[in-house]
Write a structure and sequence with these properties.
alpha/beta, Rossmann fold, 3 domains, 19 helices, 27 strands, elongated
Length: 689
Amino acid sequence: MELLPRSPAEFGSARYWDRFFRQRGQRPFEWYGAFPELCPVLHKYVRPRDKVLVVGCGNSELSEQMYDVGMCEDIVNIDINDAVICQMRERSASTRPRMSYLLMDMLHMDFPDAHFQVVLDKGTLDALLTDEEEATLAKVDQMFAEISRVLQVGGRYLCVSLAQAHVLRKAVEYFSQEGWVVRVHQVASSGDKQQFVLPVFVYVMTKFRKIPGSAAQILEICPEEQDKPMRVQSAEQLVAAVKDRQHYALLCSQISKTPCREQVSLDLCDKENGKPRYTLHVVDSPSVKPSRDNHFAIFIIPQGRETEWLFGTEEGRRQLAASAGFGRLLTVSLHREQHYQGMAGIQAELSGKVMELAPPGLPARQQVPFLSVGGDIGVRAVRHCDSSPLSGDFVVEDVKGEGTCYFRRLIFLQNRNVVQSEARLLAPTPLPGQKKRRKDKKKASPTEPPGAIDKSYLCCEHHKAMVAGLCLLGGPNALPGELAVLVVGLGGGSLPLFVHDYFSQARVAVVEIDPSMLEVATRWFGFSQGDRMQVHVCDGLDYVAKLAAEGTSQTPAQYDAVMFDVDSKDLTVGMSCPPPAFVEEPFLQKVKTILKPEGVFVLNLVCRDARLKESVLGTLRAVFPLLYARRIQGEVNEILFCQPGPAGRRDPAELGARARALEGALRQPGRPWDSSYVLADMLQAVHIL
């Protein structure tokens, strides 16, 4: 322990190194990066005929090993400590005649200009640049200037480093401004327990003549798993890319020693374009008793099903891991922008990387199983990609669900794990006289046009609850007849379409702020306007305010039901539906104004902030005397049914009876009905707030 410095500044002190080497004696000292690990990178940039300068050589064996394997023999080593120089001369005098050791300060070197093809630095820059004080930075500038002076044009400065952010940034900024090409290699780990948890990097700075007036920079990073470098645009991007790899190394070290108390999430990016390719979640199950065969498994989530509760929520993944019976389950989501070569291709691509996330106690050479639903990777076909100023980038895609069911989804890419709208697709119906496809014939490609939209099926549980809330309308024994319904938020149009088609006397007005959504709903989700369905492209706040302002004591309220199913674009607020302005008291008073006395205001509330949610509920109670709530199991959604007067209060038994009666009225002969949709079930969990 006496060898450790009292402060980081001592790393740059000649007195400290004199004491260090005298006390350590003849034992070689390697800061980090053993020769077998560094050799693949060094071999790319050091040629046998190169004249190599090693600055701050210490008593590292790196130069000796390079010499002995024939990588290079014309090697000059310098250091400021005379004891270590004498020691190293004695070690190599008889066996390495072309290698020399000189007592010299790298800040003031005696070599002529352009004397070397390679300058090699293993930990010396890290030892010098211990802080960002003015005096320290001046020494580093002097070091870089001397290295630049003694290197030939086309020569390489190879710096082995742990790549602390301030060290990497300083090197990159200095040499890129001089017109040099800067490339950072991550050194592949040997897999053995290392002295340093952080990965080792090699900066490769190649000297070019500086072109006056040119501001072009060539900055690249070459991760350990690939040879092809990736271009980045700035020093900050390069520092960030290195930091990501450092965080990953720390994570792997941590979870290889102890179980994860919380689920860990990370993205693995495409080697070519840097975009996310896989999203991994590490889920540990303490309740699973470990045995030889149940330590670790990989679960590939089929494409398009990553938004389902079982795969897309922490509790769902926890249940999945427990039911799978493995101590650690690594779930893998596949991204829509990527192409995959089936389960075998994914397994080959991930097999090496996932083992870095293996749990403690995994037996050596243990075969880790890859699991999935049905043994395949699912089907996802992107039908439409676009962008709008209001909704940002979005896609319409068809995905395969359980069994033979296919679904069409609208996804806003700013919140890619949330399905904005969803509809079930009908199987294609053969034309009259057309023969059915024989079972032994080639199956339809997943990219073939699917069938029409199944308008009888509400995919979203919160839509089912919102429709069930219409049971609250009317007198004690009345069922909804002629209805005026206002829906704010179109999406794919499933909710207003269902109300329009199944409440045959309903007149539905829809307000949608984004004209792109009307186009998407019409083209891709079977939505259409008519005598009983009109869409108003405007801000819902303005539309309701205008209606409320037009209302007078002589003009009765207009709507039996007002439904809000509108998302918030502000992801910084803990409420993603609706936007906060829609639940402020002055606006809610306007909603109440346009609602009939026996009407119902139905609100889809998605709020993760407990305080904000309680504030919203308090505001709603202040405006609407009667407030029912229905939680959606497994989701954050809560459907609120608000009525202007307490006279509409109904007990659970009455609600159930009205729901059964309404369902019976909606289930007409010849009209399709989803047998799993039971209105009474949707209202069983309703409670009065």
